[in-house]
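Action item from last meeting closed. Structure (129 res):
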């Protein structure tokens, strides 16, 4: 049996999306963000399972409908998330994350964090063999 949240979200998306959705039953316990824990939302076009209705809708919009709502004002490149657009804008603004040890600069914060591990001896494992 579907929880009220699963049913509400599923009905909303079915009404506002041209793609039919399938919600597989999961746990009906609600977590602190109002999502049903363990709920799986399945894309009926490709079978990909996502954890919530928002990511399913974004998946359908970008992958199957070609909708990228976040557009760069400088080069017109389009992105599926605001976070990806913000990272991309660093190419235009010159904003960088700088290593406090060697002053090397990075566009992505994660790249800086990965780099800093080399300075403290925590090198990532190389799985390519």
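Sequence:
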């Amino acid at each position: 049996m579907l929880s009220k949240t699963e049913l509400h979200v599923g009905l909303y998306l079915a009404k506002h999306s041209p793609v039919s959705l399938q919600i597989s039953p999961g746990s009906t316990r609600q977590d602190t963000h109002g999502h049903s824990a363990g709920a799986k939302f399945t894309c009926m076009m490709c079978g990909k399972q996502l954890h919530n209705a928002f990511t399913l809708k974004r998946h359908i919009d970008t992958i199957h409908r070609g909708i990228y709502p976040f557009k760069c004002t400088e080069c017109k490149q389009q992105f599926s998330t605001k976070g990806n657009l913000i990272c991309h804008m660093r190419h235009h603004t010159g904003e960088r994350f700088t290593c406090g040890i060697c002053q090397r600069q990075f566009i992505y914060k994660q790249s800086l964090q990965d780099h800093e591990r080399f300075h403290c001896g925590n090198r990532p494992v190389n799985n390519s063999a």
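Note appended to the action item: The chain has two domains: 4-64, 70-119.
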